[in-house]
Amino acid sequence: MDASGIDMAVLSLPALFTGSVSEENRNEARRRNTEMSSIINAHPTRFAFFACLPFLDDVDGVLQEITYALDVLHAVGISMSSSYGVGVDTKYIGDDRYDAVWAELDRRKAVVFLHGTQMPSATPDPHPFLCVPISQVPNETFKAAAHLVVTGRKRKYPETKIVLAHLGGTTPMLAPRVAVLSNHMGCSLTYDEILGDFGTFYYETALSSYGPSLAFMDAFVSPDRILFGTDFPAVGIGMASWYTDNVKERYGDDKDKLEMVLGGNALKLFQYKSTSKVEVGAG
Predict the structure, then answer these.
(1) CA-to-CA distance for 110 and 77, rounded, in angstroms?
(2) 3-state secondary structure of 82
(3) Which position among 121, 151, 164, 226 has the lowest Cβ density within 10 Å, counted as fewest Cβ atoms?
(4) What is the pLDDT of residues 84-113, one digit of tens each?
(5) How far apart are CA 37 and CA 30, in angstroms?
(6) 114: closest CA among 275, 254, 245, 280?
(7) What is the separation, in whole angstroms, between the first and last Cα of the chain?
(8) What's the Cα-to-Cα distance from 27 to each of 23, 32, 58, rounded to whole Å?
């Protein structure tokens, strides 16, 4: 963090996207959150954290953990996976069965960090160099974001602030495809309403910052919707630094915009009063 000039990092652990409705699953979520809280308590000016939840089908357990994590452990938000379950039983997070979860998050005006599920495709990886985090995770993020939009869940619960990992994966490029074709398939939202709802997500830069990609994002969302992220330590400092350098190069001629992306937007989102460079969703 010091070498990268990061003042504070918001930590996250992978969501429990598989499992069952069980006390064991609830205990695992609690254990993870308690461990994260101990890090924050030891370094309160350097770290905050997104709490993980039990397997999402356990709606009662999930609601209990949201209360404990936010009110007792003082997590700054909730980490969620794009889907829960395996195979034909998989459900994306806009599913009706999770409506009570979204209602509670909205009531609390919570921040949600949404990461694509690390689940293999039904087809093999095209190449060992194109494994799940490269070829699958970005599209899983898109599918979850699109699901929240076309089901109306995103606009039903507008007070929930959802951060999409990795600049939303393939979301920015595929949003106009959703707008037209999902409407054609029966979605009641208009083209402009669908695109407008995609614009209400926040997008963090981990493993995605590149000049043309950031230029696209500048045209796709308002300036306050782009947040800084690196995925360190899940990736090495050399890889993380390359993406960070791209952020600085893109916005180097606009000091105000650079400060917004590197920390100002996150400070506003989390309602912090100080600290300049904030990393969202550090692994």
Answers:
(1) 6
(2) coil
(3) 121
(4) 998 888 999 999 999 999 999 999 999 999
(5) 10
(6) 280
(7) 12
(8) 6, 9, 12
Tokens of 181: 């074709």
Indicate the residue type of 22: S
Q: Are 202 and 261 in contact (CB under 8 A)?
A: no
Listed residue (58, 151, 144) closest to 101, CA to CA: 58
- Cα–Cα dist 167/222, whole Å: 13
Angle formed at CA 212 by CA 209 and CA 214, multiple of 5 degrees: 45
Tens digit of each residue's pLDDT (9 = 90 or more) over 198-255: 999 999 999 999 999 999 999 999 999 999 999 988 899 999 999 999 999 999 999 9
pLDDT tens digits for range 25-38: 999 999 999 999 99
What does the CA dihedral 203, 207, 211, 212 come to, rounded to 10 degrees? -70
Number of helices (H) and strands (E) in the chain: give both, helices first: 12, 10
Transcribe 224-282 into DSSP letters.
GGEE----TTTS-HHHHHHHHHHHHHHHTT-HHHHHIIIIIHHHHHHT-SS-S-EEEEE
Residue 79 has pLDDT above 70, yes or no: yes
Task: Give the pLDDT confidence of 185-194 residue by residue, as tens digits.
Answer: 999 999 999 9
Say if CB 42 and CB 7 are below 8 A apart: no
pLDDT tens-digit readout, 119-132: 877 788 899 999 99
Give the number of C-alpha atoms closer than 13 A to the C-alpha of residue 226, restricted to the C-beta side.
25
Structure token pair of residue 220: 């796709």
